[in-house]
Amino acid sequence: MAINIAESVPYLDKGCRYVDFYTRFLHPNLPCLFTEDHTKTWPARSRWGENGFINIDTVLKPFAGQELCVANCQEFEFGTHPMLTMSAEDYQSYWKGVDDGKILYLKDWHYFRNLDFNDFYNLPVYFSSDWLNEFSDFRTDCDDDFRFVYIGPKGTWTPLHTDVYCSYSWSANIIGLKRWWILPPGRPFVHPTVLRSHSGFLFLLRIVIGLR
Fold first, then answer.
1. pLDDT, tens digit, for every residue of 96-108?
2. What's the CATH code of the domain at 153?
3. Which ranges carry the JmjC domain (predicted)?
């Protein structure tokens, strides 16, 4: 049985100092939630949303004519969902109800690879030391980044995993609801922690699978 401890996980408002965040959560490797005050002025909140729903036309507009990779959440192969390739226009039609019964998750999308992320959100001071992206931004041998966008209808999900390179990640929930399952060290699939985030963001240190 899952343990819902959302109320016991501390919420941090904009008054939280970096040193307090570091000593209370980052260094001891503990989860925390941030209030929506941190994201309410982000341009993405007004650009991508309309009356509480995703404005899919606006989100996909910069990618007209391009191919996207989406996960079919109704199938499971080799520990993950099989990936499909479809045009931005086809996913737009799928989102509006013209689909074939699949539950398609547009995930790990490098939305900001050719766009300036500063036009969509402001990097919180707590995550200003962004080692992976700083390293990638200065590389000349490849074009990569770790700034992802995820869009999916009800029922889309990601299998149990650790984040890229077992790194420390943070996520902002712009529209809708998302449930997080965080497994404690040494207890895979037993008593997962459930954290909910609504228009705020969750500092997800790591999804640990049987390791300390």
1. 885 667 889 999 9
2. 2.60.120.650
3. 112-212
- pLDDT for 162-179, tens place per residue? 777 777 788 899 988 888
d(CA 34, CA 20) in angstroms, rounded, equals 13
* SS3 state at 30: coil
Cβ contacts of residue 28 below 8 Å, gap of 6+? none
Range of the domain at 92: 11-205
DSSP per residue, 97-112:
T--SS--EEEEEE-TT
SS3 of 84, please?
A: strand
Number of structural domains in the chain: 1
Evaluate whether 70 touches 79 at the Cβ level (below 8 Å).
no
What digits encode the pLDDT tens for the residues 62-71?
Answer: 999 999 999 9
Residue 79 lies in a domain: yes
